Recover the amino acids of this structure.
């Protein structure tokens, strides 16, 4: 683990605007945040240095969030994971996040992200040194 005491969070989402906005919030709350738009690149980085927490979108091209979660369980079983999805049918959430829970994620978030919900979850799952 690097010398800094603030937890490292990895965020994976194929939407660059959402990725940048969420990363800014996470950094403003005192966490170190590393972002990826590609699940494969993120897994490679996390294999070398597992984060305290992973936030992963479920629907992504090439390697979806389900596969990222499953592989992360093998790479770093202790890393906590939050699954994120905007999957709606006729305005109602589908079973996608429930499936994520079966894969052992610590929490789920339905898009659009609500900053207060995200901040609460981050505080519960890995408080930064400045607020611990």
């Amino acid at each position: 683990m690097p010398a800094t005491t603030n937890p490292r969070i990895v965020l994976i989402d194929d939407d660059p605007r959402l990725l940048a906005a969420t990363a800014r919030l996470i950094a403003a709350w005192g966490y170190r945040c590393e972002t990826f738009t590609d699940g494969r690149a993120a897994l490679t980085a996390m294999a070398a240095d597992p984060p305290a927490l992973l936030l992963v979108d479920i629907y992504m091209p090439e390697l979806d969030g389900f596969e990222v979660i499953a592989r992360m369980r093998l790479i770093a079983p202790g890393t906590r994971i939050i699954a994120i999805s905007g999957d709606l049918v006729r305005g109602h959430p589908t079973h996608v996040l429930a499936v994520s829970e079966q894969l052992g994620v610590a929490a789920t978030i339905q898009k659009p992200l609500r900053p207060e919900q995200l901040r609460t979850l981050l505080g519960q799952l890995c408080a930064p040194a400045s607020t611990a």
Strands lie at 8-12, 32-36, 53-57, 80-85, 88-89, 92-93, 107-110. Helices lie at 16-28, 39-48, 65-75, 96-102, 115-125.
